[in-house]
Amino acid sequence: MTDRMLQINVLLQRAIAEIITYDIELPQEYLVTVTRVKTGADLRAATAFLSILPMEHSREAMAYIIRNRKLIQKQLGDKVQLRFTPKVLFKVDVTEQKAAEINDILDRIKEE
């Protein structure tokens, strides 16, 4: 990945995080973090990976974000200065959940 792509990914990550935090009215019981953004080579599409806590409410929080995708997309176009505003796809980042599962397995092995 080129330095330019990394810069664009970070720019989009910060902008999307700011929009989710300040511009959409996300219920306060959800804690949403944009963990990373992966942009396509042509800069027309991007995938934003979200960490949602508590995990048992991730489906509801993701549904809320997807319902507000048009607003997020519009705000993103206003915030970033790119030739094309990438169409953003949202996915739940399960990296932390998998890490916790691995730690639980390792703890059980230590106990045995």
Proportion in helices: 40-55%
**In CATH, what is the homologous superfamily?**
K homology (KH) domain
Poorly predicted residue ranges: none
CATH topology: GMP Synthetase, Chain A, domain 3
Question: What would you report as the Rg, rounded to the nearest angstrom?
Answer: 16 Å
Number of helices: 4
Distance between the termini: 43 Å
By secondary-structure content and strand pairing, the structural class works out as alpha+beta
Q: Approximately what portion of the residues adopt beta-strand conformation?
A: 15-25%
Number of strands: 3
- Which class in CATH terms? Alpha Beta
Shape: globular
For the residues shown, what is the average pLDDT?
A: 90
**Sequence of secondary-structure elements:** HEEHHEH
Order of strands, widest sheet: 1-2-3
Q: Under the CATH scheme, which architecture would be assigned? A: 2-Layer Sandwich
The major beta sheet can be summarized as: 3 strands, mixed
Model description:
The structure is a single chain. The protein has 112 residues and is of the alpha+beta class. The chain has one domain: 2-Layer Sandwich (GMP Synthetase, Chain A, domain 3), CATH 3.30.300.20. Helices cover 53% and strands 21% of the residues. The protein has helices at residues 3-23, 58-67, 69-79, 95-111, and strands at residues 31-39, 45-53, 87-92. The chain has a three-stranded mixed β-sheet with strand order 1-2-3. A hairpin with a 5-residue loop joins strand 1 (31-39) and strand 2 (45-53). Helix 1 packs across helix 3. The longest helix is centred in the first third of the chain and has 21 residues, at 3-23. The model has no long low-confidence stretch (mean pLDDT 90).
